[in-house]
């Protein structure tokens, strides 16, 4: 029963049942393995490691426990992350960037600390028209920290200094930005996130005007069973150009009954409202509503490779510049194509279990505008070091 509960995502219930089972049948190899897996999936690698080490001290030579402990310790080694992305927007603006990060884990996996460095280039030379503006470079040194306090509480925070440098111009600034949130798991069926972030915007006009936004955020996920997710999200924030935004979203997702490929169907509603329509680069409609039907499909082409594809049929309405007039647009979008792998994918280089990779191609609305889109290519490489 504990195995079934864990597979269903009900890890706390699984842990309670497996601890009761092991109290009656101490050091049962299968029970120990299932308990360690449930604790790790619950976000408590420290408790999982203790269970395995205590078991191996009493039952040396248990190959299954040794393998699980080796995998657990491997997951806590320092990890290097390299990410390259290139975006082509429909106004011919080209954005390229690379992101580098290094994560170190402490406290048996409960704490993660790691530096970050991102750099982006906004190239408007491809824009149509007689005037050609200068490139914009954004350099973002930062630090990420994560800590799991107990079974129910985890905190994440990242701080940045966004150095915005306009070449051939005199607009250079270095605002502090951040993203932080606290996650609460009251039980196996609910997840609550509350947070705040301060950000610059990924468009040429907002960067040149040095516009920033500070937001309060919140979300609630309810998972009544392993195939269903119901989510509500909310965001409110102020902009440095005197604007402010209220944004909300509701989503219901259901996994299809067949196993291969793993397929999800979702319905999503999004609404937003701005106090002013300033046209300063970011999308700021007076009144905006969007209904989407979304699908996602994931399949493994081998033990080391997986493919994910997402698409959406959307219907969006917003209040136009003329008072009382609504614009309504529909669109079929291929949102995301993803190829990912790791483990034995690079066996010939003798780096199995230490290299992960992902390639993505996305087409999606730019700044959530119904009439604008961009294509994004992402290549991600992660390397888990062989020694902690």
Explain this structure to me?
- The protein has 388 residues and is of the alpha+beta class.
- It has 2 domains: 2-74, Alpha Horseshoe (Serine Threonine Protein Phosphatase 5, Tetratricopeptide repeat), CATH 1.25.40.10; 78-384, Porin (Beta Barrel).
- It has helices at 2-7, 11-24, 29-41, 45-58, 63-75, 204-208, and strands spanning 79-89, 94-106, 111-123, 136-148, 153-161, 163-166, 172-173, 176-184, 190-199, 213-225, 228-239, 244-255, 262-274, 288-302, 305-319, 326-342, 355-365, 373-384.
- A 16-stranded antiparallel β-barrel has the order 1-2-3-4-5-8-9-10-11-12-13-14-15-16-17-18.
- Strand 14 and strand 15 (305-319) form a beta hairpin.
- The two termini are 36 Å apart.
- Residues 320-325, 331-336, 341-353 and 366-373 have low confidence and may be disordered.
What is the compact description of this entry?
It is built from 6 helices and 18 strands. By secondary structure, it is an alpha+beta fold. The chain has 2 domains: 2-74, Serine Threonine Protein Phosphatase 5, Tetratricopeptide repeat; 78-384, Porin (Beta Barrel).
């Amino acid at each position: 029963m504990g195995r079934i509960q864990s597979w269903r995502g009900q890890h706390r219930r699984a842990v309670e049942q497996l601890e009761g089972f092991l109290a009656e049948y101490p050091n049962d190899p299968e029970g120990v393995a299932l308990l360690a897996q449930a604790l790790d999936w619950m976000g408590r690698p420290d408790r999982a490691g203790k269970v395995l080490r205590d078991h191996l001290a009493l039952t040396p030579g248990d190959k299954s426990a040794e393998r699980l402990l080796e995998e657990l310790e491997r997951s806590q080694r320092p990890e290097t992350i390299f990410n390259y992305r290139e975006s082509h927007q429909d106004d011919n603006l080209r954005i390229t960037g690379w992101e580098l990060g290094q994560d170190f884990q402490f406290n048996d996996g409960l704490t993660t600390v790691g530096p970050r460095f991102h750099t982006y280039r906004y190239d408007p030379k491809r824009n149509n028209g007689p005037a050609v503006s200068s490139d914009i470079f954004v350099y973002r040194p930062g630090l990420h920290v994560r800590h799991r306090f107990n079974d129910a509480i985890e905190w994440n925070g990242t701080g940045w200094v966004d150095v915005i440098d306009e070449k051939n111009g005199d607009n250079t600034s270095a605002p502090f930005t951040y993203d932080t949130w606290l996650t609460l798991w009251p039980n196996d069926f609910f997840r609550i996130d509350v947070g705040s972030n301060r950000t610059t915007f990924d468009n040429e006009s907002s960067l040149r005007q040095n516009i920033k936004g500070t937001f309060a955020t919140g979300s609630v996920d309810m998972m009544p069973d392993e195939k269903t997710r119901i989510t509500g999200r909310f965001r409110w924030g102020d902009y440095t150009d005197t604007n402010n935004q209220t944004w909300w979203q509701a989503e219901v997702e259901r996994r299809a009954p067949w196993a291969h490929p793993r397929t999800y169907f979702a319905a999503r509603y999004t609404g937003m409202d701005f106090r002013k329509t300033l046209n300063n680069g970011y999308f700021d409609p007076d009144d905006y509503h969007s209904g989407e039907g979304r699908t996602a499909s994931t399949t493994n082409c081998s033990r080391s490779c997986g493919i994910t594809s997402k698409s959406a049929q959307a219907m969006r309405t917003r209040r136009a510049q003329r008072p009382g007039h609504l614009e309504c647009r529909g669109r079929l979008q291929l949102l995301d194509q993803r190829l990912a792998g790791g483990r034995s994918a690079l066996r010939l280089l003798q780096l199995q279990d230490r290299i992960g990779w992902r390639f993505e191609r996305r087409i999606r609305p730019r700044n959530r505008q119904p009439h604008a889109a961009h294509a994004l290519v992402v290549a991600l490489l992660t390397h888990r070091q062989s020694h902690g």
